Amino acid sequence: MNMDSREHRTRGMTHQQQSLFPTDAPAWEIDNAAEIYVATVVFSEAPYGPFDYAVPERLRAAVSAGRRVCVPLGRGDRTMTGYCVRLDHRDGGGRPLKDIRNLVDDRPLLTPGMLRLTEWMADYYLCPWGVVLDAVVPAGVRGQAGTRAVTFLRVPTNVTAKLSQLELPEKQLQALKILAASPQPLTPQQLARAAHCSLAPIQRLRESKLVVEESKRVRKADLADTPHARQPRHDLNPDQQRTLDRMLDALHSKQHRTLLIHGVTGSGKTEVYIRAIEEMIGFGRQAIVLVPEISLTPQTCERFRARFDRIAVLHSHLSDAERHWHWERIAGGEVQVVVGARSAVFAPAPHLGMIILDEEHEGSFKQDIAPRYHAREVALWRARAENVPLVLGSATPSLDSWQRVQTGEFQLLEMPRRVLDRPLPDVTVVDLRVGTKGYYRGGAISRQLHQAMQRALKEDGQIILLLNRRGYSTSIQCPGCGHVVRCTDCDIALTHHREENKAICHYCDYMIAAPTICPQCGSAGIRYAGMGTQKLEQEVRTRFPYAPCLRMDSDSMQRPGSHEQAFARFRAGEVKILLGTQMIAKGLDFPNVTLVGVINADTALHFPDFRAAERTFQLVTQVAGRTGRGEKGGLVLVQTFSPEHFAIQAAARHDFATFAEQELPVRAEFHYPPAAVMIRLVVRGPSEMATEHFAEHVVKQVREVWAATAESAHSPETPAAAGGEFRILGPAPAPIAKLRGLFRFHALVQGRDRDRLRAVIRQATSELKPPEEIQWIVDVDPFDVL
Fold first, then answer.
1. CB neighbours of residue 666 within 10 Å
2. For the chain, how long is the longest CA-to-CA vector?
3. What percent of the chain has pLDDT over 70?
4. What percent helix, strand, coil does the chain show, rounded to 5?
5. Interior CA angle at 495 toward 476 and 587, to 5°?
């Protein structure tokens, strides 16, 4: 059973104090009238708590909120490790509490501010507090990775007082005197070297209890930043200077503000961030800069490293030891700038001065496992709590942020021009529909795109081709009987990967040998259709054998550092044609790119997801911005079967405002964010019927709780309520109806009052007990509904 299932079986435990202890007072019960020191403890696995424990006298001076503790749990007193989240003095007249056994950590892992943040996350995202804490504190920090346990020796005070009276062998006495005079404890090896003796005399002192032993964890080896050449400042254009002035005004005001920088691709947003941070660190403050995926944006990291002396980079390719090392440096105030992916929002910066989210529209800022937080919302809460500015930047802001600009919650800063007044690239939409203009002849590259690629290569330019589908062929189907080769565990067609000659499920990694005959009817005419990046690469190499080509997708970029190496080759001009998935569409600045081709702009346009049009607009606009950054200018060709779609048309004009004006009313009409609040309920299980029945039960519970707590006479079914106050869509099979062997049903709960909606879901699900093997989750503010 996974975390999601356990999470909701015990949902009710997260909002009231629980007790798993015997009600009969033990013989050793303390005086009920005495005041006791109580620690509130939560766990990262069921039962989540919170539970109360007495702090024994020996631990009172050391225990603190934010540290992990070992405690006895239940009638069997099994030892559990939990987080101490609160300490207070109470009257000892109540039920006796069990004692904390010992402390796990030498110091708190979380500050009081981070404890408040995680408590808010647990409440907002309807997730156990302990699960949130485990997500906030990296595993490498919890496990003290990169350190080892070492025994240290010291001389107790009572032995030091009678040192001259002791009758010991010469070497033992000499070692004892040296240890007593040492300002800090020494290891046996250090003491032996200082006393010029072997370890044998030291061992005799330990056996005779003349020295006290204590174990501490010490770092095995320090890591060092690679030195980077310093880069000079760039002159700012009027747009950049105006934006920087507004950011500095927010900094100097010592009040929280949220600034949304809407800057076109190539407008120089990163330079503005750096200038603001330079000003901020002059006052001894630290900055957190979040980027969508650190391994995909190496240039951003390089630019920050080249401008700041002390930078920490947090990303998924770090080892636990490296992450622990960076965490300690950040917490110690040694780091000026923290650059990282979404989890870097939890960096323990003690002198935080600013948080920046670059490319704030990116979906990777939303986590898809518990706790299902969005880094933007967490950053907003933290920035408000610490009274510092939050800066959001994007050429294609999310409609959620754009709506908050309209309501006055966020302040808008516009950067409508590129640096050096370079023009935005011309965008041509290529109609791929058969019978219209005859451009599409069966390959991935239209005649127009082929001719444009020839011109770009002839002029010594570079080319980027985007196709957001990996693999070779995206479907395998028999034309005789119509059978589609699908994953046995997911409701997904298998993708053909030619390099391994395998048919693979991209959701669960199920893999079979690519079939040569139909598995259903035995026909030898089985057809491989659709286009993935592997097939595109083959076509490019066939058409342009003289132009070095490189493919970037999650299949080819699996080794640590592979992204940086690929981009370095492209930047050096070794590669002329770079093709790949959306990882090549963001964060890249290559002045010699003169042509961008979008092979199929429709890959996500018609998904059953309310954000499909927004994602398409963002992806096309972002990849178009990779060209025209140098003196040669640039051209973008967007191939599509839906040339009239307003998202395609708006992207072709680089016109975000018009796109937002057309999309927002559609969202409002159907009560989708940002016009309304939405919470997604997903139920999954091995039995389709049992899963559907439990999904119906969950939705029924939600409806009943809403009706019982309604503030007006309207029932949830009346037109007034359905008009936006409360509405449930479903339960119905999820767009991906089966995943990893489990059938999936979901329901979308929509409303206007965010707090009330969450309260209803919390109350309706607090006592739910799913049948065996049924799992369910709650996703507050879902980013996708597939």
1. 13
2. 106
3. 89
4. 35, 25, 45
5. 145
